[in-house]
Amino acid sequence: MGFSEQDFYFMRIALEQAMEGFDRDEVPIGALVVSKDGVILGKGFNSPISSNDPTAHAEVNAIRDAAKFEKNYRLTGATMYVTLEPCLMCYGAMVHARIERLVFGAYDKRSGLTSHLELIERLNLNHSIKIEGGLLENECGELLSRFFELKRQMKKQSK
Question: Which cofactors does it use (predicted)?
Fold first, then answer.
């Protein structure tokens, strides 16, 4: 599967969003919702800790931002760019928003969407999303690794 220059451009902006989360001591995941015309409709980064909201994942925050911008909960034809493979909750939000395409960076082998595709197919949802993964996978994964390494170091120092 080939990614376009536009895909790389938007994933780099999603990485900037992930850095926003990193700087706020949130797990560094960033997301963008982009219209089929290439307009950024919404941005988001992980913020469940600072917002006291377990649903405040980067994807959900980007969808909320885009829906406000569009004044519509349907984001038909849009693409979601996210630095880490989404969880099932975020995929569900994308289905409800009618996101057309999902492009993610790093794979999440433990709780990522692609490890649950069989379940998704059995749900017989009324909307499907084109899924493409691995864009800037190393950069996206390295940011997460660096974050958790710093967390482990801080934990050791506090003992």
Answer: Zn(2+)
